Predict the 3D structure of the following.
Amino acid sequence: MKRQGPIILAFTIGMLMLVQFFTPAAFFKQAYNIILDWKQVVLGFTFILGTWSLIRYHYTKISRRRENWQYSYVTLAGLAATVTAALVWKTATGPYPWLFNNVQVPMQSTMFSLLAFFVASASYRAFRARTFHATLLLIAGALVMLGRVPIGAYLSGSVFGVKISLVEISDWVLNVPNAAAKRGIMIGVGLGMTATAIKIVLGIEQTYLGKTD
Amino acid sequence: MAFYDRMMSIDRRIIFLSVGLAVAIPIIVPLGFPVQVSEETRSFYREMAALKPGDTILLSFDYEGDVMAELNPMAVAVLRHAFSRDIKVVAITTYAGGTGIAERLLTEAAARYGKTYGIDYVFLGYNPDWSGTMLRLGESFKATYPTDQYGKSTYEIPIMQNVETYRDIALVVSISGSALSEYWAIWAGGRYGAKVISGNTAIQAILIYPYYKAGQIPGFLGGLKGAAEYEKLIDEPGMGIRGMDAQSVAHALMLAFIIVGNVGYFFSRRAQARQSK
Amino acid sequence: MVIAVVAGIAPPTAAVTAPEVDVSDTPYDWGESLTINWIPSGPPDSIDHYEIWRRAGWAMLPAPIGQAHSSSFARIIREAGWHLAGTASATDTVFIDSGLSSDSSYVYLVAAYGKRSIRISQPTRPARPRRQYLDTRHTNILLATILFISAVVFFVERARRGANLFIRRIAGLEAIEEAVGRATEMGRPILYVPGLEAMDEVATVAAIDILGQVAKKAGEYGTRLLVPNRDPIVMAVAQQVVRESFSAVGKPHMFRSQDVFYVTFSQFGFAAAVAGLMMRERPATNFFMGRFYAESLVLAETGNATGAIQIAGTDADAQLPFFISACDYTLIGEELYAGSVYLSRQPLLLGALKAQDYAKALIIGAVFGVVLLYLISPEIAELVRKAFG
């Protein structure tokens, strides 16, 4: 029952959600709304689970003096400070918005800004015209990179009377070959998602139970 | 080491430093490159411009602090465009970190245009279940958000009196740094017939083109350039336009590095071919 | 049509007429609503708002209305058994009245409130909400779903009976054994990141499937496996999977809960933590399987800088270019979903994969067919598109 219970539940709820899409019958609509409500409740509990898991992991690290255990104090102190700030001074004013605007946002923005540097080094390393396809990729990438910024419009002009607009070329690359390739991948991914969902509903796929065979 | 080998193996610290300078200097010393408006942005603008005073839009802040630099200009421009035309805004966020961002932008825009909370706009807050939220809003806004961000019952908020489902929303605007705009189009648009437009980071924007071509997302803003274009259309220059010089120079620099690497590669191959002869 | 006027003063010069109203069943519902349409009574600036009134059964307008003042309109009409169903703005022309019973008939009238007068329509014919049992807007999806489920069941059954179902070679999956072996030889751990999404994402399910196979290999070779997680439920499932995989190869003692751990829900906090882990632990092999976002390049570039062999797989096509440029092998889109099937060769999973392939072949054929039809006869192609679209 420990194994069969979740499978029966997955089948029941999966079929309910599938059928409700095709019929406006009141029973299915009510079931749909109830399931969505419960989904919110379950998700709320995952935050509790996550917080508990974080605290347990770092507490264990400190108590067993594992490598870099000192940094676990920083993590737990940060968690405690943020929660305390939100509970005592609320979130509209006081230390909580200060922590958000002066600590969390700058840290997140900094991490994201690393991408600019990584993209530069990755593209310098990867965009080599080794083969025909790589050369095609390089040319398309160069045209889109220039066409997507104002300098592209600045650099556009006429060559031997033929108007060359980097912006228009870039738009064509994005609207035609890029969109076509994306659609192909999306169709494949969509079918894969549907197949996996069917497997889960029918009980063929049981990975979510921790079962691998 | 031959010159072509040096060209192919530039220290990544030099690359990082160059990119840093390429971004920082144009911010300090603007170059004033002109912004040309793309068709996608024009379509986005047309959808917003077609709204009538008194219409209500659902503005979803689907991002948090990491992509704030790229998406805040879009959100600010949307709010300015809406408030300047007396369009009401029902705002939500699907990221916990988006709460502070949304509150700040809404408050600043409202103060600029003299808008009143609860009458002209409302912030319903954060809901961790973004997929359930998109579906549930199609059944009932008030059941999905019984209270707003500040704990007031949505049944008592004036702007929410006539907002029950997507049918009462003229436009769903998703400002997103992830795939959430696509899900808005699929679930709010596909299932409930809501009209969805989006503002996306440049990375995510390339995924929106199939939806744009199919009419599922009739207009979108792509990256900081999209924000700059929209600011130009609504005649409210902001961080989008200011960032374009830096982005232009950075792109040109990256291209220069790529060209250098390929020139080195070309000479390296020629040298290898000569040696093998 | 007789026009009823509530006269407080002489009719205004702006032409506000009584609305022409029609009522019909709201489609695709369970018989609980009716849709009321009307033609605007005048320019929007001459109308203040509309009121929609409802009465069960059949009705005429109450006689005193013709002589009543606008202020008494609501009282008189209520006394005649009408109820206010709702209001609409000056620019609206549709109102959906919900919460009705499919056992009753209803009549409606619409009152157009001008700046100085009210114009009232005649009551509509009685209408009864009807139940629709099928949302016919989704017929094509229903047919496609039934077809696809049938194909899955058919091929699963074929696989169960021992049919040899072919899967093409996928380089990234073939390289798993070599990658795990490399980590064993170098005496360094394996890092496995199962994406950033929750367990309800198909990509995460596929990633956990592959994790099970990788964990078995790691257990066989006695190599340490690190699995940082962004989602607590995924962490719980990953712990279970890794524990079972180690037990399956006779190495249950290899499982350590601190090696399969929760990091943080913050996207870039997670990326920073994993990047730091890579710099400190120097894993010889990195697996990035599942749904990733902007942090993918941070992870892949950091792993590349440490010299690890990297195998990535994601259905997030925006991140594919970053993985392809920084990783040794990349599984693209549905190759990730095929991963566990490819490694385990379980008949049930194999059958579902074949069904996907045939469905895709059907879609490709349909796309080519319609394109060809457009070239031959655009009119017929439009008919086909409207029939199935």
In short: The domain at 39-237 of chain B is CATH 3.40.50.10160 (Rossmann fold). The first strand of chain B starts at residue 56 and ends at 62. The CA atoms of residues 73 and 240 of chain B lie 6 Å apart. Chain B has a mean pLDDT of 93.
